[in-house]
Design brief:
- The protein is mainly alpha-helical and 179 residues long.
- It folds into 2 domains: 6-72; 107-175, no CATH class.
- The protein has helices at 11-19, 26-33, 41-47, 54-63, 72-75, 107-125, 130-138, 142-158, 162-175, and strands at residues 6-9, 39-40, 67-70.
- Strands 2-1-3 form a 3-stranded antiparallel β-sheet.
- Helix 2 (26-33) packs across helix 4, helix 2 packs parallel to helix 7 and helix 6 (107-125) runs antiparallel to helix 7 (130-138).
- The longest helix is centred in the middle third of the chain and has 19 residues, at 107-125.
- Residues 72-108 have low confidence and may be disordered.
Amino acid sequence: MKAASYYARTEKGAAEVAQRSQAIPARARSLLLMIDGKSTGAQLIEKLAAFPNSGELLQLLETEGYIGPVDGAASGAAPAPAPAPMPAAAGAMPATPQAASPGTGSGAGVGAAKRFMIRSLHEVFGPDADSLTGKVELAQTPEDLRKLAERHRELMASMGSRRKADAYWQGIEEMLPAP
């Protein structure tokens, strides 16, 4: 993986996300869901450092043709700002990304909220989060994301993770305030 190149899902990667063929390990699929075409190899490694073996899994995704480098200028996408660092404490919820634009409902706000939700779900549920993160990826509006987030909060609380559920909801409130 080249540190300065931007990485996006290939057609094969997009098909894996859509069809869940289970041709790759669950953890690799979780990382595949977070590939957005707006992060460099270095940013991906930093953003996904909390995942066990993330470097090897990213290399697997690239080697197997699920992700590949793209020219950011050719795609018209401006480089994304560096993601907020993940907390060092085990069991802590991810920090709210600095790139979020609370209350704007803009595409950047929705994208930041999706990334926050996916990281948080993986933090709490591990590889079992895949069934939840797929729905997050498909959500189009802030309202859709808030509905999903409310369900996620209830699920976390029902599993005895009230503090994590509250931290998750606080992050959602900051990025996607109620209309």
